[in-house]
What we know:
Elements: E1 26-31, H1 38-49, H2 53-66, E2 68-74, H3 76-88, E3 93-95
Antiparallel strand pairs: 1-2, 1-3
Helix pairs in contact: 1-2
Amino acid sequence: MAFPATRPQIDYDEDVLTLEEEQELRTLIVYNDDVNTFEHVIQTLIDVCEHEPEQAEQCTLLIHHKGKCAVKNGTYEELEPRCSAIHDRGISADIV
Length: 96
């Protein structure tokens, strides 16, 4: 007696797992100094960090009164060019 030829059944899972690389979020901090004007810091935050004028003004007041302010969050790769641009304008900043 001959057995009928069989093909193995393969079930394909429709779910696809996506590997997402986790990137640590950092914070860009701007520090107070006695050199730069309010207007210069405000304009820098508008130009470099894409703040709205009101947001830039609030951050600048915090920088002045508290000594520093977190002005932007993101990955190191996103923040590094902004930090460099702020330094180029003579303002002290760090990524933490």
